[in-house]
Amino acid sequence: MKADNCIALLQQMVAIPSESQNEQAFAEFLANYLREELSMETQLQHVDGKSYNVIGRWNSSTHGKKLILGGHIDTVPPTPRWETNPYQLCTRGDELHGLGAADMKGGLAAQLTVLRRFKEENASFDADIEFVGLSDEERHSIGAHAYVKLMQQQNALRNKNFFLMGEPHFDNIVIGATGKALLSLHIQGKDDLATDRQVSDANSFCVDTLEIVNKTVDAFRWKQLFIHQDTAFRWNGQAITRIVTFNFQTAVGSTHTIGI
């Protein structure tokens, strides 16, 4: 397997903008690659707006077992701090720089390069192989939810599935990763003058609630870790943390977010 092939593919990937909620062009690129280069059965799953999941499959004669490769196809937006064109892969020493090169188009390119070698050698595998690219991971993971719902509809979650993601995690393979839960509290009020007693009381309630959450945020986080670190949130001696975001919205539209 030549690393040049993987880098050339990554170069094409980086050149296609795919910020969260704008993944359609990149999803179509991947679907074409899976179909033309790997001869996979492909599917573009529309999630919302310009967000799409892409799925490719090799079906084997063995039923009930599946190896799933892939990860998320979206990136964060570029910032003004970029010193080079974020959509043009460049080399700095032994590093490759480009938007999403690490998180996680590099992982996708590596997996697709392995699958291409697998096809070229006519290798056999005692299970179905599926490649899945999920949208919106950097935001609310609506792509992952849509994919799981699709699998539920197909009763595919009852099968023996093994999912290997190319998400960067330093230099080792882990089971589980930092996640997040998005919780929203909506306080209903009415539009009126700021001198109105009822509106003033509603806004004061918002402020008071935010202050309470802000004071207890650290205690809440550590309490959750203490409760779960020896059960579902612990693996090989390493605690798997999670992020909780509180989203407060008043009737007049102002939004306050606190992350845990």
Q: Can you offer a commentary on this structure?
A:
There is one protein chain. This protein is an alpha/beta fold and 260 residues long. Helix content is 34%, strand content 26%. It is built from five helices and twelve strands. Strands 1-2-6-3-7 form a five-stranded mixed sheet, with helices on both faces. The radius of gyration is 22 Å and the shape is globular. Residues 220-260 have low confidence and may be disordered.
What layout of secondary structure does this protein have?
Layout: H1 3-14, H2 24-36, E1 41-48, E2 51-58, E3 65-72, E4 90-92, E5 95-97, H3 101-120, E6 128-134, H4 142-153, E7 160-165, E8 179-186, H5 197-228, E9 234-235, E10 238-239, E11 242-249, E12 255-259
Parallel strand pairs: 3-6, 3-7, 8-11
Antiparallel strand pairs: 1-2, 2-6, 4-5, 9-10, 11-12
Helix pairs in contact: 1-3
